[in-house]
Amino acid sequence: MDVVILALVLGVLVAVVFVALLRVRRHPPPLDEQTAEQLADRAPTLDVPGTDAETPAGAPQVAEGAPSVAMPPPAKLSPAERFRTRLGRARSGLGDALASILRGRLDDDAWEELEDSLIAADVGVEATLELVAGLRERVRAEHIRGGPEALALLKEILRLELGVADRSLRWRDDGTTVWLITGVNGTGKTTSIGKIAARETAAGRTVVLAAADTFRAAAADQLERWGERASARVVRQESGADPAAVAFDGWSAASSSGADLLMVDTAGRLQNKRALMDELGKVERVLDREAGHVDEVLLVLDATTGQNGLSQASAFAEAVDVSGVVLTKLDSTAKGGIVIAIQRQLGIPVKLVGLGEDIDDLATFDPDAFVDALFAQATQDVSIEQPTATEDR
Amino acid sequence: MARTHAARGHPDVCDRLRNDCVGSVPAATVIAPDARATRAPAPPPHPFNRWIQPMFDALGDRLEAIFSSLRRGGKLTDEQVNATLREIRLALLEADVNFKVVKAFVSRIRDRAVGAEVHEALNPAQQVIKIVHEELIEILGGMAAPLDLGSRSPAAIMLAGLQGSGKTTAAGKLATLLRKQGRQPLLVACDLQRPAAVEQLRVLGERAGVPVFAPAESGDPVPVARQAMDEARRLGASVVIVDTAGRTNVDEVLMAQATDIKAAVDPAETLFVIDAMIGQEAVTVAKAFQEAVDFTGVILAKLDGDARGGAALSVAEVTGRPIKYASVGEQLEDFEAFHPDRMAGRILGMGDVLTLIEKAEDVYTEQQAKDMESKLVAAEFTLEDFLEQFQQLKKMGPLQGLLGMLPGVGRQLKDLDLDERELVRVEAIIQSMTPEERRKPAILNGKRKKRVARGSGRSAQEVNQLLRSFEQMRGMMKQLGGAKGMKALRGMGDLDLDALAAGGGLPTGVPGMPGIGGLPSGLGAQGGAVPAGGRPRGKTVPKRKRKKQKNRKGKRR
Ligand SMILES: Nc1nc2c(ncn2[C@@H]2O[C@H](COP(=O)(O)OP(=O)(O)OP(=O)(O)O)[C@@H](O)[C@H]2O)c(=O)[nH]1
Ligand SMILES: Nc1nc2c(ncn2[C@@H]2O[C@H](COP(=O)(O)OP(=O)(O)OP(=O)(O)O)[C@@H](O)[C@H]2O)c(=O)[nH]1
Ligand SMILES: [Mg+2]
Ligand SMILES: [Mg+2]
Q1: What is the full DSSP assignment across B477-488?
Q2: What is the number of CB-based contacts under 8 A between chain A and chain B?
Q3: Which of A9, A189, B21, B114 sees the fewest Cβ atoms within 10 Å?
Q4: Which domain holds residue A89?
Q5: Which ligand lies nearest to the CA atom of residue B169 in the structure?
Q6: Each residue of B180-196: pLDDT tens digit?
Q7: With contact defined as beta carbons under 8 Å apart, do B158 and B272 qualify?
Q8: Is ligand 2 within 6 A of the CB of residue B191?
Q9: Distances from the Cα of A26 to the Cαs of A63, B254, B462, B511, in angstroms?
Q10: CB A31 to CB B508 under 8 A?
Q11: Domain identity same for B280 and B179
């Protein structure tokens, strides 16, 4: 910015470096060695082409499409119906958010509305600008005049972006399938595990849950309640135990009892916490080692999350081999548009969605319903231009 | 907290602005093609860069590009104002500030920026940033708002918010804080919904050394809330902290329940707990909770993450309620009073550089700054200058605090626990040198070094170390001197910091400095969040991942 800042930054840096130097000299080896060890420890997993190759060929047998079997009483909604109705609950359909688009003109206001609605859905500025720029080009090339046609085209583009991914969850031909559930704090990991477990036990599979969140208060108790509800066995240790050890126990219990599925619940961790991300890597490595490989690493993402969701996905993908996203809390007014950026930039597809706190509030991701809902106006709209409450501060 | 709203609502301005950036993809390429181009082929990031980088992607950098052509003392042209506002708008959107809030905000900035005489000692970019910063702080509440529990005893605090936002944890933290202040809190478990929520509060209460009132594990929480006040009187507790279940703003039944709980305890403070990572819906959610429980303050949780936290601005703007606390970790002690100024810098993605600028202006005269610049350019920066620099720096306040103001550095270095006494040692070494030695460290032979070591009470080895790192620093500065301003700083990214690191083992080996080793991608993302930058952020699949994905393909059906 200015030379003053330049000097300042340097000055501060200089100071830090000096202090650091002095300090390193005073207690030198331990941390260095430990770090080196960690690195060495980590290294082999970085290039284990074998791990995946060892997988029995022609693996999964249980199609993801089977959930209708899993859904308890027939009177209930199918997951697809639930997806649509739950999304609809928070939305009034195409409201005045897209008024000028739907009125048919394709003027500047209309383009702005389109952009706004994408941004409002947390799609992100960069992705929005790219998408709308791409759309404008196609609209020009295809001589499209009407707003509704342009909107339809945009939806088609989005569906294509989201639609090609493989959303099936990987199962093993024989032996116990292992899924690792990760994510930042409070996104709905434990709840999603409970819901998935219920779905699978209802389909006649045996499920074991490992409470590898040994950190948060009463996390294992929470998982245990879910285990009771879902008729799944829960493996736990005392609070503060090594999460990798719990995962190990979980695998031992699940494989020796011939369970179909082991799901490992992990503590919420913010992606900028290096030590915690390393800890997660260790859990994955232990499972890789014991179980041959982890079949799914699911990142649980809260639909209300904004642009940080992308940072979450890339950091978790770097730490562990994330294979899919579970998008929770889609029953709220939030639209979860950040998953578009995640799919575009990282190639990680959404596999499941959470639609509430109840045991059956789980569905397979439906890109069509999702894209439609992106453009729906929330019923609770807030007018910013006439602030009311601010005056009485 | 006085605030004017006269200057709101110039949507037409924003629209014009917006139209500029539609159609031509990344906006900044339009503005400053050269500035972007120079950054283009990014060198492989050194861990060090990861925490320096965010500074250069900050808003100030982008504005600098716009203003680079402007002479000092001039007025901002319309065009420049528009380009500036566009950058501000993008920065705010990237930070998750609600787009409607952004519009209202940007039009207010415009009113202030148009015709603003450029401050003599500042360049226009800084002037505009200052205006933005001031406006942000004003919306965020000016000063940190304290908890107001009134005079009634027991006083009640009720917590409410979305699922998983951090209410129960915040309840434990508040209890800890109040206990430290000599109050007798009572925690009340009114989340009878989520499995083991009551147990969670019990554990937290135990850790905090605070009693927990939890007469029920399931059912209706309203009677529990009602009984809680009697229980508090019985126990002689002076503050009742009511934890409630998470609820979605569209869940009418649960929102009504929250209203009922509030009526039952009649709290002095109702705090809305919101996750700092929340996106555009923050306004809708906040508004709904305001209608249901009319909260008196906000707790911004998970601020220890790397989210820019624009939601803070959205919530403050639409509800007018102050943010009272920042929840910054999973431990009960990780709880702070909220600082609007820090948050403003964070939202803009520029740390507290603004406060730094102000502090620097107090300490450095323009002449001093110019002298320093020429010295840097000519690579004449000596140990003597360093000493002087160091002393100036100290005038600006504790180094720890200054560090915290550097964008992207703050949190990671917060734990460094910089002992100012260690700095004194560095100073002592330099002060033990003769002026000539300070100017020409090369003349320091073994004998002289011994003398210096003796004089400063340090070992000869430490003296050597200092000299070596100073040389490395100087090398950096020399390269920096080649270019100017922020562009120069940006150049730091290309420097070989490995040597420096190798010299002292700084990146991985420093106790208490875990962040530096390889600041998690978060930091990169913080800077990287700047959208229009030409940095090719997209479609990068980590190397290892790519390989595995390929392997997986065969396995999939
Ligand atoms: N409305 C709604 N709430 C959900 C959904 N999924 C989870 N929740 C709620 O979100 C809150 C957090 O869920 P948890 O399962 O505890 O989240 P977690 O990720 O395990 O949290 P930590 O382990 O603390 O990091 C709980 O109140 C859940 O009931 C969903 O799909 N919709
Ligand atoms: N890193 C970090 N984690 C936090 C913070 N506050 C809460 N958490 C974590 O976020 C998760 C959810 O926190 P809770 O306090 O259970 O949230 P809640 O709002 O009570 O959740 P529900 O009762 O399920 O709605 C837990 O894993 C907490 O440890 C914070 O400031 N920083
Ligand atoms: Mg959990
Ligand atoms: Mg809670």
Answers
A1: HHHHHHS-HHHH
A2: 445
A3: B114
A4: 79-165+377-384
A5: 2
A6: 999 999 999 999 999 99
A7: no
A8: yes
A9: 59, 58, 10, 10
A10: yes
A11: yes
Of A23, A125, A329, the CB nearest to B90: A125
Give the residue, A381 or A116, on which the prediction is more confident.
A116
Number of domain units in chain A: 2
Residue with tokens 């020796």: A256
Contacts by B427-430 with C-beta closer than 8 Å and gap 24+? B427/B387, B427/B390, B427/B391, B428/B456, B428/B457, B428/B458, B429/B453, B429/B456, B429/B458, B429/B462, B429/B463, B429/B466, B430/B383, B430/B384, B430/B386, B430/B387, B430/B466
CB A338 within 8 A of CB A307: yes
H or E element at residue B386: helix B383-395
Cβ separation of A185 and B330 shorter than 8 Å?
A: yes
Q: Are residues A101 and A181 in the same domain?
A: no
pLDDT in tens, A214-256: 999 999 999 999 999 999 999 999 999 999 999 999 999 999 9
Residue B498: Cβ within 10 Å count: 12
Question: Is A302 close to B556, i.e. CB distance below 8 A?
Answer: no
B309 CB near ligand 2 (under 6 Å): no
Please judge whether A7 and B513 are an interchain contact, meaning their C-beta atoms are less than 8 angstroms apart.
no
CA distance B211 to chain A (A): 16
CA of B136 to the centre of ligand 2 (A): 27
Q: Does the reported pTM lie above 0.80?
A: no
Return the CATH number at A155.
1.20.120.140
Question: Which residue does chain A place closest to B533, by CA atoms?
Answer: A126
Residue B531 belongs to some domain of the structure = no
Question: Going by DSSP bridges, is the β-strand pair B335-337/B323-327 parallel, antiparallel, or unpaired?
Answer: antiparallel
Show residues of chain A in contact with B207, CB under 8 Å: 217
B364 closest CA partner among B406, B395, B400 = B395
Taking the C-alpha atoms of residue A274 and residue A319, their distance in angstroms, rounded to an integer, is: 10
B15 & B124 share domain: yes
Q: Name every protein residue with a CB atom under 6 angstroms from any ligand 1 atom.
A: A 183, 185-191, 213, 216, 219, 267-268, 300, 328-329, 331, 354-357, 361; B 163-164, 194, 246, 248
Eight-class DSSP state of A262: E
Q: Beta strand A350-354 with A362-364: parallel, antiparallel or unpaired?
A: antiparallel
